[in-house]
């Protein structure tokens, strides 16, 4: 099937999404909740693009390609609103994300520095019960990637989304310590987490020591 | 929606069908006032779901997150109750009980929670003591005395000589369809009748049914959205409790048209009488042969089951409803796939509002033309509307589309009590715009209300009188929006919280920032909750800029 990304013709498989088409065309549409190993989730809304004929920008990860569809990754409104969403995300963290994280990189790509929003942030809450993994809840942006890889890739079902609204976050098992869950220590969650909210213990220890040395 | 979790549920459901995780958790909290890890383990074992998943479910719903004492009271924090006393009653209740909302007494004999709309908006403010819903004059005192009584509900009425929705269901439509029409010819009739969804979006029911009919699947389902989460609405409550036969007939007709043999009604738990009324009516319909195998010797089999929700506005959104119906967290799923292709148990499913389906019997009995003749305007059929306690004659009324709001508010409602004036109306639920009191010449119809930034929505009408402060209304609405957000998509999860913080902070609002936030919500949100919560705020900006402080 032929679609057009910023005017350039791209051949996509039936069932491909607009996001896949932009990647085939070599564009880097920013995403936060996307993990190509799992089913489309459509939560972060950062992957906004314009589609010719559509009233407003759409989330490209959840928009199937249609024959001849014209996708623009350079639409001013789509980019501006995606940046607004990322700014909101930065505003929920009590401290800026570490520079190597996907979130920090997406923020940089979209040109967002310090968020203009003040207001509630997530309370610092660390679970260090697991021998290899650390959960720093205050950094969780509820992208659901860890929950989905644990379910769809690993089949361990150790994680879940919890709460609702602004208080949404994640938990392992019955939330009585990561170590007490059905986690098989595969590390898939830490690997996919865009903020280091779940990270490997030794990286956390290094960061912790560096933090104390400052 | 996780494919693996649905597979797990299906595997454990083969055979008797164990209770859903929601039902297990509900039993636990009703039994001992809170949900323990042992309860979660038991719910996981019975439902077939992982323990972590059950933990997530137990942290989502109001019915599970509010601890209970031997006696559990709930105060309504819905918009009609707010419009009555601006939440002063909550403070009085807290003081009288010596408990804050969300608290339980140290000896665990008493607890105070909240519920967002108990469906007694005609007699607001409303309270719930156990399963008794009390409301109106003296209710607060009765609650404090421990003598709550079931509130009186005004009878409903219709402006039609031959009411469509308020007259008891007869099953004549189902009889006629099964005897004289094929599923295709009945479906064609519903399409021609242009029956528009009454749940909020106004989508043509016939088109949805056809989509599901044409979707491949060994089995198909009709799911009835009886979540009626809109604060200020009690229309579906009346239909489910006073006219369950009409609904049952409508569900069976939808099943006939679509090729489904099973209907599921999702009734909200804030209406403790709805699910029992439906179950009783279904049992009687089976006895009479209006449901069951080979109905009226036509070869058509149909059965209906009833599930109860657990306290969540978002559970009314169709994809969240499917999750909740299957016992999961009521969060939204991306579309496609649409429920008509992949819904309940990942099979083709039609989801319709209670009132929508209650129109199906008339169309079967009298045809599309008679249906079109019911209303003078562009939209065929009739609409149930309901009025809040501020009116002299609050209640549920069946009206024709294209009736003026003056006729509704003054003609039927009798204006406001005690000489109060209508400052504004919120029509169609929390996602509807707000109409100033000087625009009551507007017609109750889709296009006419849209032109005013409003909507028909589900048809609940909440009047605010001249005492109402619009900045405080913005706080009330955004508080609702932020608390009920399912938390899945980023703009709504964070944006409604930021919007709430903005209007709660003292001083003037930064209008550009606010409008930028509203646009982000409108364009980027995954579902209409985040996308339409800005609608009433935009009305306030447009009509009451000074009061709002922009
Ligand atoms: C936040 C939200 C809440 C909703 N709540 C309800 C509800 O309580 N009852 C309802 O029938 N539809 C509700 N809907 C609409 C449903 O998603 C769906 O459109 C409707 O049930 C379809 O039925 P209809 O076509 O017959 O109207 C809600 C939608 C949203 C976005
Ligand atoms: S822990 Fe990381 S991967 Fe998991 S939801 Fe939070 S931010 Fe996303
Ligand atoms: S708009 Fe709000 S309620 Fe709807 S999916 Fe997003 S977070 Fe959930
Ligand atoms: S009963 Fe309180 S808003 Fe409906």
Helix-strand layout with pairing:
The complex is a heterodimer of chains A (214) and B (550).
Chain A lengths: L1 E4 L2 E4 L6 H7 L23 E4 L6 E2 L10 E3 L3 H16 L10 H8 L16 E2 L5 E4 L8 H10 L4 E4 L6 E4 L15 H5 L5 E3 H13 L1
Parallel strand pairs in A: 1-5
Antiparallel strand pairs in A: 1-2, 3-4, 3-5, 6-7, 7-10, 8-9
Chain B lengths: L2 H11 L7 H12 L4 H11 L3 H8 L3 H4 L5 E6 L2 H7 L2 H10 L12 E6 L10 E4 L2 E4 L3 H7 L11 E2 L13 H9 L2 H11 L11 H10 L6 E6 L8 H8 L1 H15 L3 E6 L6 H15 L3 E4 L4 E9 L9 H8 L23 E5 H5 L1 H13 L9 E6 L8 E5 L2 E2 H8 L9 E6 L6 E3 L6 E2 L1 H5 L9 E6 L4 H15 L5 H15 L6 H14 L3 H5 L1 H10 L1 H4 L2
Parallel strand pairs in B: 1-2, 5-12, 6-7, 6-10, 7-9, 11-17
Antiparallel strand pairs in B: 1-3, 3-4, 8-9, 11-12, 13-16, 14-15, 14-17
Helix pairs in contact in B: 2-3, 3-4, 9-13, 9-17, 10-11, 10-13, 10-17, 12-14, 20-21, 21-22
Bound molecules: flavin mononucleotide, iron/sulfur cluster (SF4) (2 copies) and FE2/S2 (inorganic) cluster.
Give an overview in words.
The complex is a heterodimer of chains A (214) and B (550). Chain A has 214 residues and is of the alpha+beta class. Chain A has helices at residues 18-24, 76-91, 102-109, 145-154, 188-192, 201-213, and strands spanning 2-5, 8-11, 48-51, 58-59, 70-72, 126-127, 133-136, 159-162, 169-172, 198-200. The termini of chain A are far apart. By secondary structure, chain B is an alpha/beta fold. Chain B is built from 25 helices and 17 strands. Chain B has a six-stranded mixed β-sheet with strand order 5-12-11-17-14-15, with helices on both faces. A five-stranded mixed β-sheet of chain B has the order 8-9-7-6-10, with helices on both faces. Chain B has a four-stranded mixed β-sheet with strand order 2-1-3-4, covered by helices on one side. Classes of the chains: A alpha+beta (214), B alpha/beta (550). At the A-B interface, α2, α4 and β8 of A face α1, α3, α4, α20 and α21 of B. The structure holds flavin mononucleotide (FMN), iron/sulfur cluster (SF4) (2 copies) and FE2/S2 (inorganic) cluster. Flavin mononucleotide is lined by residues 197-201, 203, 205, 225, 227-229, 314, 316-318, 351-353, 356, 527-529 of chain B.
């Amino acid at each position: 099937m032929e679609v057009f990304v910023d005017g350039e013709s791209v051949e996509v498989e039936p069932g491909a999404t607009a996001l896949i088409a932009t990647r085939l065309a070599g564009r880097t549409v920013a995403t936060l909740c996307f993990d190509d190993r799992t089913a489309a989730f459509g939560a972060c809304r950062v992957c906004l693009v314009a589609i010719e004929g559509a009233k407003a920008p759409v989330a490209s990860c959840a928009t199937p390609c249609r024959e001849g569809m014209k996708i623009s990754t350079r639409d001013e409104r789509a980019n501006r609103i995606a940046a607004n969403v990322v700014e909101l995300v930065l505003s929920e963290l009590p401290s800026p994300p570490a520079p190597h994280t996907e979130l920090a990189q997406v923020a940089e790509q979209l040109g967002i520095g310090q968020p203009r929003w003040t207001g509630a942030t997530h309370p610092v809450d660390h679970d260090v019960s697991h021998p290899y993994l650390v959960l720093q809840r205050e950094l969780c942006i509820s992208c659901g990637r860890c929950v989905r890889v644990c379910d769809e890739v690993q089949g361990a079902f150790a994680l879940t989304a919890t709460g609702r609204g602004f208080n949404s976050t994640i938990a392992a098992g019955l939330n009585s310590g990561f170590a007490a869950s059905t986690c098989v220590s595969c590390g898939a969650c830490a690997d996919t987490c865009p903020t280091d909210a779940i990270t490997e213990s030794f990286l956390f220890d290094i960061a912790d020591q560096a933090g104390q040395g400052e | 929606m996780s494919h693996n979790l649905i597979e797990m549920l299906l595997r454990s459901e083969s055979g008797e069908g164990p209770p859903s995780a929601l039902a297990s958790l509900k039993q636990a909290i009703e039994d001992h006032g809170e949900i323990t890890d042992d309860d979660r383990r038991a719910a996981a074992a019975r439902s077939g779901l992982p323990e972590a998943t059950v933990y997530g479910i137990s942290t989502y719903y109001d019915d599970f997150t509010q601890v209970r004492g031997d006696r559990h009271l709930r105060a309504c924090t819905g918009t009609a109750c707010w419009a009555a006393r601006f939440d002063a009653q909550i403070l009085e209740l807290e003081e009288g009980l010596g408990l804050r909302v969300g608290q339980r007494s140290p000896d665990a004999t008493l607890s105070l929670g909240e519920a967002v709309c108990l469906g007694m908006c005609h007699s607001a403010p409303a309270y719930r003591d156990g399963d008794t819903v009390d409301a109106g004059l003296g209710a607060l005192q009765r609650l404090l005395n421990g003598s709550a009584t079931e509130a009186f509900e005004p009878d409903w009425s219709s402006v039609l000589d031959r009411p469509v929705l308020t007259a008891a269901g007869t099953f004549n439509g189902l009889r006629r369809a099964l005897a004289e029409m094929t599923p295709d010819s009945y479906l064609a009739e519903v399409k021609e009748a242009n029956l528009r969804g009454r749940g909020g979006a106004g989508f043509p029911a016939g088109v949805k049914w056809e989509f599901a009919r044409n979707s491949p699947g060994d089995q198909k389902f009709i799911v009835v959205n009886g979540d009626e989460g809109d604060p200020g609405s009690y229309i579906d409550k009346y239909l489910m409790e006073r006219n369950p036969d009409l609904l049952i007939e409508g569900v069976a007709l939808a099943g006939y048209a679509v090729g489904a043999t099973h209907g599921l009604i999702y009734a909200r738990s804030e209406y403790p009488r709805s699910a029992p009324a439906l179950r009783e009516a279904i049992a009687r319909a089976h006895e009479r042969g209006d449901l069951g195998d080979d109905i009226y010797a036509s070869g058509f089999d149909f059965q209906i089951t009833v599930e109860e929700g657990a306290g969540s506005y978002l559970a009314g959104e169709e994809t969240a409803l499917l999750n909740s119906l299957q016992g999961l967290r009521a969060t939204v799923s991306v579309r496609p796939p649409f429920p008509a292709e992949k819904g309940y148990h990942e099979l083709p499913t039609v989801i319709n509002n209670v009132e929508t389906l209650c129109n199906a019997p008339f169309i079967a009995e009298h045809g599309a033309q008679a249906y079109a003749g019911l209303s003078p305007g562009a939209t065929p059929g009739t609409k149930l509307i309901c009025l809040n306690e501020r009116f002299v004659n609050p209640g549920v009324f069946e009206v024709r589309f294209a009736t003026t709001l003056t006729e509704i508010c003054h003609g039927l409602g009798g204006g406001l009590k005690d000489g109060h004036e209508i400052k504004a109306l919120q029509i169609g639920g929390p996602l509807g715009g707000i109409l100033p009191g000087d625009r009551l010449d507007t017609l109750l119809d889709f296009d006419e209300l849209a032109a005013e930034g409003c909507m028909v929505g589900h048809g609940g009408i909440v009047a605010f009188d001249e005492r109402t402060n619009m900045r405080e209304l913005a706080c009330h609405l955004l508080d609702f929006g932020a608390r009920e957000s399912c938390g899945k998509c980023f703009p709504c999860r964070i944006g409604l919280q930021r919007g709430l913080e903005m209007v709660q902070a003292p001083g003037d609002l930064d209008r550009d920032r606010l409008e930028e936030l509203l646009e982000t919500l409108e364009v980027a949100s995954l579902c209409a909750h985040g996308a339409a919560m800005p609608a009433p705020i935009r009305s306030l900006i447009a009509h009451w800029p000074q009061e709002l402080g922009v």
